[in-house]
TrEMBL record:
<protein>
    <recommendedName>
        <fullName>GcrA cell cycle regulator</fullName>
    </recommendedName>
</protein>
<feature type="region of interest" description="Disordered">
    <location>
        <begin position="1"/>
        <end position="23"/>
    </location>
</feature>
<feature type="compositionally biased region" description="Basic and acidic residues">
    <location>
        <begin position="1"/>
        <end position="11"/>
    </location>
</feature>
């Protein structure tokens, strides 16, 4: 299980551990919107929405068609 983070961009008041790449994929599979996953990953991992989208696509084996869920 890998965890992608940018330690210098993690929110200073975060108490939870960083999300793993697999956890982000599981959130997507459960139907969570990408904006929700990106918000959590921005605070906990310091990631941008583009980075989160790329991770979810890699973990879930998705192809970007330009439309989001």
């Amino acid at each position: 299980m890998s965890t992608t983070t940018h330690p210098d961009r993690i929110h200073k008041n975060v108490r939870q551990p960083p999300l793993t790449d697999e956890e982000m994929g599981q959130m997507w599979r459960k139907g969570e919107p990408m904006s929700y996953i990106a918000h959590a990953a921005r605070r906990r991992n310091g990631l941008s929405i583009a980075e989160v989208r790329a991770i979810v696509h890699r973990v879930c084996g998705l192809v970007d068609m330009g439309a989001g869920r």
